[in-house]
Amino acid sequence: MATNTPYFYHEREEESRGLLAxxxxxxxxxxxxxxxxxxxxxxxxxxxxxxIAPKDKLDEREKQIxxxxxxxxxxxxxx
Length: 79
Description:
By secondary structure, the chain is an all-alpha fold. The chain has one domain. Helix content is about 70%, strand content about 0%. It is built from three helices and no strands. The relative contact order is 0.06.
């Protein structure tokens, strides 16, 4: 398209609005992904590591968590 047509600036404006919308969608999706990763690593219980969160495993809290679970289980058996 020739740059001297009367629609050139209008088309450029629409194009930049589209890029702005695209960049805001990318930012939004980035925050969604970041939130999911935080949930996945900090809160979700993973079966492969004994149904604890990876963060707890990295912080070496699994023995404490398993001991608490055992205590709760034994208390329920006594009831």
